[in-house]
Amino acid sequence: MTLSALIALLAINFAFGAGLEDNHYIDQQHNPGHDVNVLIGNQNTKETGQMDPSQQREKIIEIVKKIDINSDKMLSTEELALWIQQVYRKYALEDVEERFPKFDPNADGVVSWEEYNTQQGLITLDDAAVLNDPEQESIRYLSLKEKRRFDFADVDDTAGLNLPEFLAFTHPSEVDHMADFTIEDVLSEYDRDGDGFISLTEFIGDVRGNGDSTPSQWEVEETVRFKELYDQDKDGKLNPQEQLRWVAPNSYGSAREEALHLVKEMDHDGDGKISEAEVLKNQESFMNSEVTDYGRQLITSHDEL
10-34, pLDDT tens digit by residue? Predict the structure, then answer.
């Protein structure tokens, strides 16, 4: 198997987790359409858009009541964050439930490392073997990283991953206890000076040729992303929470950031919360947010969440 093929296979595990965040910002500008998709669901945004205003209003009120855990008719940042994270996890779980049987051919309820390797078509290289082929060495490095994540997700100390553990393995950004592994992994990859942070230089990496002083378009764009999207406290480096925002966009930190964004956009009286009246006054913005997966939730049963 070639290195590029292995990388493609390993990337499949993270395809779902990144999806909800891919269009959150377009040209470094916040995309309100993404917000609607998070709250109601991107698969049904078009159908939701065909509702008349009164139907949309009724559905939005239903959602507000589900989010309002303490029934005070106000949506706090915490309530919004928990709801958003719940939506993220719902879609991740649906994905895992669909894929799990393929990786568990003997239907014993667990996916072994061997079953996973077989299904993915991966090759196993001896950890201690001396490899002269740089491509094989790269394959072994990536495979070992995959195995470490597999073992970290296996929390019950039995052989193989059950469904919740397989969720943690394939969608680590949806499972809180995987945050430590995610941060450790990104630090081992990027933190060259070992200070526990990721600087802009470490984030960009060595992309210029010898003597080339002109940054590429990619480098310019990634620099903007680093400064505007990830480095929230503007100190020129990514702390652990900011690292999660970068590599695990569907984590609680990401959900809370989206919740703070919604409060900032809709809280007109400055009390730090969103009232039902403020939601209805900003009906279009609310529909176009992560709270409604944020359009999909207007047309699906809320008993499922």
Answer: 333 433 334 444 455 545 455 555 5
